Amino acid sequence: MIEYQAFSTFLTTVQRLVAPEDLGEELTPFYRDQVGNALSDIQTLIPWFRTFNVNVYTKSDVEEFCSASIFNGPVGKITALFAYLPGRECKKLYYKRVSTGAVDCWMERQRCVQCTFTPTSTNIYDSPYCNYVIVGEDACEPPYLTGTEDTCRFTSLDDDDRIYAVGPDYRVYAAPRFPCDYSLLLHWQGIRRKWEDADLVPVDQQLRESVVNYVEHKLALKERNSVAMAEYYQIYAVNLRMLKYRYHEEQDTELERDCSAAIDQLMAPFSPAYTGTPYGGFGVYGGGGTITVGGGILQVYTGAAPPATPDDPTEAAIFYPTGGGSIQQWDIPTQTWL
Q1: Measured on CA atoms in the order 268, 270, 273, 278, is the torsion positive or negative?
Q2: What per-residue string of b and e applies to 3-30 under the rule 16 or more CB within 10 Å gives b?
Q3: pTM exceeding the 0.70 threshold for the entire prediction
Q4: What is the per-residue pLDDT across 220-271, written as a single tens digit (0 to 9) for each?
Q5: For helices 205-222 and 28-45, angle between their N-to-C axes, nearest 10 degrees
């Protein structure tokens, strides 16, 4: 079963398997890099693991501008973005993806018209600060909305009224901004090439074993132990093949179809010759045999070559080559085998 672990937790788990006696201080940065490289390598080679990426954003990770939340998104395909209240509520408030032009128009409609500090504004839409880009945490202080007002407005919106867009620089623009005590969760598909402590790793036992063998291989390479390096790499290659097999069997929605066992049943409506056993079911003896089909006569022949003409050239005939090859039919109008 796939579970999510913080990258820092995953590092500790793998380290207990790679170096139970603990790593030397000089190897710690190298070890961290290699664990991240292993996860990126697996995502590159196995499409299944490219679909499990999740990022969580809080107010400290975003900027606010004209009542929109702006942050650096991942280099990949975003599949879902929603806001949620951590620890207290299960409701997901989804954003709908639109063009950058649509978000830009939305932000322009929020731009302030009242630029005065006296008296201090209590509404974000009346505040001069909405003409500036400010840190998300600062946007939770006056003169912005209070937490109650902010949450009430956000949660009462229809689904189509929460929108987001992805810019050409992978900047994500979510409008309106999510409330101060909420978080954003972003699902995306792609290859994560940089791993931070809080990043979530999709983990199961086989993936963990693959990472362990990849890191062991890299450590052996660093120590110039060619024998151990080759052994660990071979095990890692086996792990990858198993993960690829699992991807094909468990995640490939277009399953292969094999209808060979039903050939007799499938072909009967198309050719009367398939209604019995070929080469004998009709008394075929080299010269030929006949069966009655729909009131007419079907002449059936087998051998190395078809006869010059069927016994009755005015009736339908079919020929099966015993050495393999294309089935031929007698064309009555042209009096030839086709």
Answers
A1: negative
A2: eebebeebbebbbeebeeeeeeeeeeee
A3: no
A4: 998 888 899 999 989 999 988 888 887 666 665 555 555 555 555 555 555 5
A5: 130
